[in-house]
Sequence to fold (314 residues):
Amino acid sequence: MSHHQITEAKRRLHRSELAVPGSRPELFEKAAAGRADYVFLDLEDAVAPDDKEAARRNVIEALGNIDWHRAKKTVSVRINGLDTPYMYRDLIDVVEQAGARLDTILVPKVGVPGDIYTVDAIVTQIEQAVGLDHRIGVEALIETALGMANVEAVAASSPRLEALHFGVADYAASCRARTITIGGLNPDYPGDQWHSALSRMLVACRANGLRAIDGPFGDFGDPEGFTAGARRAAALGYDGKWAIHPSQVDLANEVFTPPPAEVDQARRVLQALEEAAAAGRGAAQLDGRMIDAASARMAANVVETAGAISARGC
Ligand code: COA
Ligand code: MG
Fold:
């Protein structure tokens, strides 16, 4: 290991994150009653400009009236971007009036570390002024060419930062990529055209102790397409994926839950290495394959994730 120590963000189960437009309050109770680990109440792109103020009021009310934590949800609010006239009031009204019940703020279209610095500074002041007894986390959407060009610096920008999300739709627009559906693959490209972006963002997250979350898959009538995308993200190391429709929640939970056979195998690896260590050996063989300290670290990740899921009672 390097002499540099990575500080891990607060641990939260984050296999599925359901997007809920702030302008559709009739969906809030359904979202709380569902099986998503995370819910974000949206003030940004799912809300039309004329509905921004009403959506903000709805979201503040929902944070106060619905017991998201009893429903085993982490609850987040996606504010409007720093280039809009809505963002400052989103932050001030939501954090002042409902900050006590809010876990994280999701900042869209983050381009430079200063975007996070600005949000952090405002939230810090409000927390102090209101006397909040918990620290509200910040999460950043990487969904522009600028954000991706600066993703390493953004990932290191604040101890308040907990996660980065890959926002494939805006990213495609920003890069002028030719796409067919949100998050889907263009057959003209040999392979996965999002691979390099997903991979770069994942590394920026892990180098800074952040969770890495894959964004939307727009065609909610195509569960196979959703699952294939989620599995690609999980293979890279992602913690979870957005659901833009309730039907995608269980799919995400399933993909990002290590299957029992994988957990058993991870426990066997740890056990075999403990026995090898007791016999004075660092490497060992299990089922004809070499395992060593790196295998133990991979196995520990699996066991830890499984432990967090069972502790949550899911
Ligand atoms: N959260 C909670 N419940 C939801 C929901 C959501 N995001 N989306 C749909 N539902 C509910 C519906 O109310 C309906 O409930 P019912 O069975 O009690 O009537 C059920 O799930 C099935 O919904 P359906 O009729 O298939 O969808 P819809 O036409 O109402 O809405 C969308 C489809 C895509 C418009 C809607 O799912 C949505 O707004 N998703 C989020 C979009 C978003 O936030 N985008 C920004 C981030 S990319
Ligand atoms: Mg977006």
